[in-house]
């Protein structure tokens, strides 16, 4: 799968942009703040329905405008796909698939991306929320229907927390909160699917991440991933039914505590995944170089996993301002590790940061305009 053209209207700092893109490696070069990352953000949005830089879609609409439009042509073998998204400051967003009205939430079925940015160091050093987001974006890419499961879980969690807060200040006894039983069932049913999918993902990622780490770092430091659930699950691979029952048991036995706290203390929204090198947690023990290598390996491992599973071919690999942070040896090893992907987007402040083997199609970005660089 690859992007063959992209058109933007009133997206970030682009009033208007139209470029044709070839297969292979596309390098976007320009100073900070010129629009390099905005371009790859637009592509990534269609695949993930979110931004890696902003929690609100309105931030992607050009200042003073009511809507932004992203239009991307995709090519896979002989198949051509046109995806169009209109992000509205007021009212719901709109989408079209091959010029016909479509649902934006279905777009991940047609386009897959894997994006690495310097912010990914938070996967190693940051709080559990960043790691949960990494897992959930990937399970949606693998199984798009999980997008609605995650959304429904967030709504159920919000409703349950509202009820718990109400009960906290109510004279009614905990035992009379019959409505809470309904939300317990709803939360456990949805949450169990998320937990089982995360378990499967972590298991399947182990091999690709280990191989990616060795290819980038040039050494085998035995990278490992381990889910750390707030709900104690049976040993081995848990079924959805087993996970649901375990979840319900925890909610039931801890109801008084949750009412007292006014919040849901157990479930996938409280889970984490632990990363380790040589049996030591990366957080607090890994060096700066090891941290970069592990973060890169998570993304490259994810790309290789999607490549093995997808009927659409390779995911589109995006490396946003990565090479400037790597030493010369890691740059060359990373270039070698990604060179066989069908399409790669790279952003860089200066072209010298990018290994020569990846300088196939170079564009210069300046003040929201894009022009092919002369060779």
TrEMBL record:
One of its GO terms (biological process) is double-strand break repair. One of its GO terms (cellular component) is cytoplasm. InterPro entries: DNA-binding_RecF, DNA-binding_RecF_CS, P-loop_NTPase, RecF/RecN/SMC_N, RecF_2. Residues 3-350 form the RecF/RecN/SMC N-terminal domain. It is found in: Cytoplasm. GO terms for molecular function: ATP binding; single-stranded DNA binding. It holds the Pfam family SMC_N. The keyword Nucleotide-binding applies. Keywords: ATP-binding, Cytoplasm, DNA damage, DNA repair, DNA replication, DNA-binding, Nucleotide-binding, SOS response. Its main location: cytoplasm. Coiled coil: none annotated. It comes from the Bacteria. ATP binds at residues 30-37. The RecF protein is involved in DNA metabolism; it is required for DNA replication and normal SOS inducibility. RecF binds preferentially to single-stranded, linear DNA. It also seems to bind ATP. NCBIfam families: recf (TIGR00611). Belongs to the RecF family. This is DNA replication and repair protein RecF.
């Amino acid at each position: 799968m690859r992007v063959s053209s992209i058109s933007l209207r009133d997206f970030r700092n682009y009033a208007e942009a139209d470029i044709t893109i070839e297969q292979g490696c596309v390098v976007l070069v320009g100073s900070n703040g010129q629009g390099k990352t905005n371009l790859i953000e637009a592509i990534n949005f269609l695949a993930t329905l979110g931004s890696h830089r902003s929690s609100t879609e309105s931030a992607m609409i050009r200042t003073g405008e009511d809507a932004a439009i992203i239009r991307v042509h995709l090519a896979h073998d002989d198949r051509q796909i046109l995806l169009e998204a209109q992000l509205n400051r007021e009212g719901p967003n709109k989408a079209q698939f091959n010029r016909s009205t479509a649902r934006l939430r279905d777009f991940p079925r047609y386009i897959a991306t894997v994006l690495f940015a310097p912010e990914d160091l938070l996967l190693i050093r940051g709080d559990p929320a960043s790691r949960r987001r990494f897992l959930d974006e990937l399970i949606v890419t693998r199984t798009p229907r999980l997008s609605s499961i995650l959304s429904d879980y967030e709504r159920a969690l919000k409703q349950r927390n509202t009820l718990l807060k109400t009960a906290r200040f109510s004279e009614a006894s905990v035992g009379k909160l019959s409505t809470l039983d309904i939300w317990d069932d709803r939360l456990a049913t949805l949450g169990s699917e998320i937990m089982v999918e995360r378990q499967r993902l972590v298991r399947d990622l182990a091999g690709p991440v280990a191989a990616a780490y060795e290819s980038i770092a040039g050494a085998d430091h035995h990278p490992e991933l381990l889910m750390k659930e707030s709900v104690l699950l049976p040993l081995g691979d848990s079924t959805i039914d087993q996970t649901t029952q375990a979840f319900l048991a925890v909610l039931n036995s801890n109801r008084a505590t949750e009412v007292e706290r006014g919040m849901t203390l157990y479930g996938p929204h409280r889970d984490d995944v632990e990363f380790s090198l040589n049996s030591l947690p990366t957080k607090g023990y890994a060096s700066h170089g090891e941290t970069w290598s592990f973060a890169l390996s998570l993304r490259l491992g994810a790309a290789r996993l999607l490549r093995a599973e997808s009927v659409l071919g390779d995911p589109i690999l995006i490396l946003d301002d990565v090479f400037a942070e790597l030493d010369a040896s890691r740059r060359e090893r990373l270039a070698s590790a990604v060179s066989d992907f069908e399409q790669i987007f790279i952003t860089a402040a200066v072209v010298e940061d990018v290994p020569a083997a990846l300088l196939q199609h170079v564009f210069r970005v300046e003040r929201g305009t894009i022009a092919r660089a002369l060779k």
